[in-house]
Design a protein that fits this description.
Length: 138
């Protein structure tokens, strides 16, 4: 069950349920529910992948996402190491919250400019984004 602890009534219900489970020696899984990224943030992120792919002519938007965005630019957010043999697992972009995604996108924009000389517009540059969206057909 999800409880919204900003609401005093729900916080009391959560405490009551937690106390009941402890009292009855139940096994529980207590975890924080993080806010997911927004649809507009998701659309913006994919537009940046398309712009980068179009500018480089070397990658597909999916390659930009899986290799450059996750592994090269943001490994601390998306790369999880499994076992002693060096296997890696890439988290899905849907597994990160809005704040983490904002950091990842800013890292990508900074890296793109510094390392490749490719300017990726900020989310508030609506006219530029609309022009590029038309240009690349996203």
């Amino acid at each position: 069950m999800i409880y919204y602890t900003k609401n005093e009534i729900q916080a009391k219900k959560a405490r009551s349920r937690f106390d009941f489970l402890i009292k009855n020696q139940k096994t529980i899984n207590l975890k924080e529910v993080k806010p997911v990224r927004t649809l507009s943030q998701n659309r913006y992120m994919h537009l940046l992948f398309g712009i980068f792919a179009n500018e480089t002519k070397q990658y597909t938007p999916d390659q930009v996402k899986q290799v450059i965005f996750k592994q090269v630019v943001n490994p601390s957010i998306f790369v999880k190491h499994l076992g002693k043999k060096g296997y890696i697992y890439l988290l899905s972009t849907s597994a990160v919250d809005t704040k983490q995604m904002t950091v990842a996108i800013e890292n990508f924009r900074d890296w793109s400019s510094a390392e490749c000389g490719i300017y990726l517009p900020a989310a508030n540059e609506k006219e530029e984004l609309a022009y590029l969206e038309n240009l690349i057909g996203v």
